[in-house]
Request: fold
Amino acid sequence: MEISANVRSAGVAHEVKVSTSGVVKPLAVAAKDGAPGSAINGGEFLMLALATCYCNDLYREAARLGISVEAVEVEASAEFAGVGLAASDVRYRARVDSPASPERIAQLLRETDAVAEVQNTVRAGVGVTLVPWSARDGLAARARPGFSPLCLRGPRSRGSRASRAVGRSVSLSEPRARTRVVWRASMGGGSREAETGVRRT
Reply:
């Protein structure tokens, strides 16, 4: 399954398309106010990717585990120190509303964290390579005049030894008493922890 994104920026026009297994979907992204480029920056999209992946995967894994989920909220954040510098202190947290027990919700959060594909991609430190536009089938034929024949593509990679050494220790605090569980994860410091906050309705 190949997933790709395409951005075309020209003046104040901004066009975004995403694709999974060849199924193309347009995505409404505003242009900068009075300037070329996107009003949403890449770091924001990266955090959105983490949040979206975990949200969708929670529903997928809940169905696998037979857990009823009524609502999900996910928030991701990171620090970007300056131009050309990689993000640090990448974290995310999630809240799940469910009639299931706190123990089952905690299980759902942990197991989803272990299989969330975007999270695992960031943790692995996958390489990103700039390649000629024509190296990718189909793109050369759609290239438009005035655009540089270059694109970004991330190859398959197992990541660095340091990134593979990231720990997976998990600790849960005591549930307080419908069930809401909050999960916080850090992907830069080698540890993750979960906080379970439960409320009955």
Notes: The chain has two domains: 1-31, 40-125+160-195.
